[in-house]
Task: inverse folding
């Protein structure tokens, strides 16, 4: 269910780490009556910078024997090829592949770690 955006005002950072993360504090401007104190919300921050590349789930990228980032490209029926890629974080669950595959390449997004073990 998609909801209407609610404007936030930045208040500051928490003083201590919690589960290896820094808390960021905001206040809600003109909070709707349907929003309760303590209710979990999803916050999406936009920095205005464009992103170029292919966005994939983090599980699609595995580590090769030498530590390089790899994806498994589907070449033929029951055939896969390991392709080295250059990635950058996008959000908590996805990465951006900056180089190594082309638009239209079919890559494994679930089970890539299993293919990596068989190799």
Result:
């Amino acid at each position: 269910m998609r909801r209407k955006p609610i404007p936030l005002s930045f208040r500051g950072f928490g003083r201590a780490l919690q589960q290896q993360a820094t808390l960021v504090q905001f206040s809600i401007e003109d909070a709707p009556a349907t929003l309760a104190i303590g209710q979990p919300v999803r916050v999406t921050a936009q920095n205005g910078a464009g992103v170029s590349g292919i966005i994939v789930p983090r599980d699609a990228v595995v580590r090769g024997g030498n530590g390089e980032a790899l994806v498994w490209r589907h070449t033929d029926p029951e055939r896969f090829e390991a392709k080295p890629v250059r990635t950058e974080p996008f959000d908590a669950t996805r990465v951006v592949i900056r180089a190594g595959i082309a638009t239209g390449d079919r890559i494994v997004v679930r089970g890539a770690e299993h293919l990596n073990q068989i190799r």
User: Anything to note?
Assistant: Helices lie at 112-118.
